[in-house]
Write the structure tokens for this entry.
Amino acid sequence: MKIKLLVVGKTSGSFLVPLISDYVKRINRFINFEIIEINNIKLKKVNSLEIQKKEGVKILDKIDKIDQVFILDEKGKSYNSIDFSKFIENKIVNSSKNIIFIIGGAYGFSEKIYSRSNSIISLSKMTFSHQIIRLFMVEQLYRALTIINNHPYHNE
């Protein structure tokens, strides 16, 4: 089993790259994890639906039919850190399938991605840049794994 974070676009913030990399190393102490960057679509004339569709095709190319897929979207279900750790633990214990989290591009997801997902998760009701959400997601995933493994990172 592996956990993957699929992201549309590159992480370009010089302050974000080392923070995200640090959490990736920490996560890999507990479980096999990787971030997969998918090039964002650029059109001469902005057409959000066309961009969603083209990015959706690229995302679907990176997902196997048996993978568990969870998209990150502010319209999804919210968890606190303890509940998110229980969610992760349940997925790890009860399945041998890969767990895929997806962060979309600036225009969100196509209907095909919503249809393919097992559920939608919200890290916040607020809108954040897709680059900042990457940091939030890897931190929360690391926090969840430390909770599961009784590591003292999380204070309650």
Remarks:
- The helical segments are 16-28, 48-61, 81-93, 111-116, 130-148.
